[in-house]
Amino acid sequence: MTRGDAITVRPLSELPRDLARLRRGGAFGALERDAARTIVDDVRRRGDAAVLATVRRFDRAGARARDLVVERRAIRHAADACPRDVRAALDLAYRRIRAFHERQRPRAVQTRDAAGVVRLIPTALDHVGALVPRGATAYPSTALMTGVPAQVAGVGELVAASPMSRDGSLDAALAYALVLVDAKLLYRAGGAAAVAALAYGTRSLARVDKIVGPGNAYATAAKWLVSADVGIDALQGPSELVVVASRDAHHEALALDLLAQAEHGGGAFAVLISNEAPLLREVAKRMPPRSRVHFYRAPDLSAAARAASDAAAEHVLLAGHGAARVADEVRTAGAVFVGERSAVAFGDYVAGSNHSLPTGGTARWSSPLRVEDFVRWTSRVELRGDLGALVRAGTAIARHEGMRHHAGSMEVRT
Question: What is the rounded distance in angstroms from the CA atom of residue 133 to the CA atom of residue 213?
Answer without folding.
Answer: 9
